[in-house]
Input
Amino acid sequence: MNIIEGDFATPKGRFAIVAGRFNSFVVDPLVAGARDVLVRHGVADDAIDLIRVPGAWEIGLAAHKIAQSGKYAAVIGLGAVIRGSTPHFDYVAGEAAKGLAQAAYVSGVPVLFGVLTTDSIEQAIERAGTKAGNKGADAAMVALEMVNLYAKLGS
Ligand code: INI
Output
């Protein structure tokens, strides 16, 4: 049986990070984590573009346009949606997830979902480089794996 998997070798191409400014105290460490992983896997720092948008609602369409540009090997969406006392959270988090998924399917480019959706500020902080790891770094690892997988598959 042939097992075909992505690896973490240095991939060809540029990487885009699309990050919301909302909750930047959480999103900035996610961006730093993603950048750190890419650079430590051999991606040149100037092959990484950071595109800032106002909030998680805007990440999907921005990721779609960026992926469609054909300039990037992968697009990493990063943001933080923290539940409040109204249903606003559900709309913003849902559209971010839907938008990033659609961007991937329509463009055929790996688009990563690194948007925290948490019930509390504490949960968000835990996932932005403290006791539950760094979800930006995790998304960048998956970006590397999937770029390398699609290169092996010739697609
Ligand atoms: N944007 C976020 O990225 N996180 C949030 O928690 C959030 N909340 O809670 O409101 C949020 N709202 C802004 C939204 O993403 C849009 O920028 C805004 O609605 C304008 O379209």
Notes: Residues 17 and 76 are 5 Å apart (CA to CA). The two ends are 21 Å apart (CA to CA). The mean pLDDT is 97. The beta strands are 14-20, 48-53, 72-82, 111-118, 128-130, 133-134.
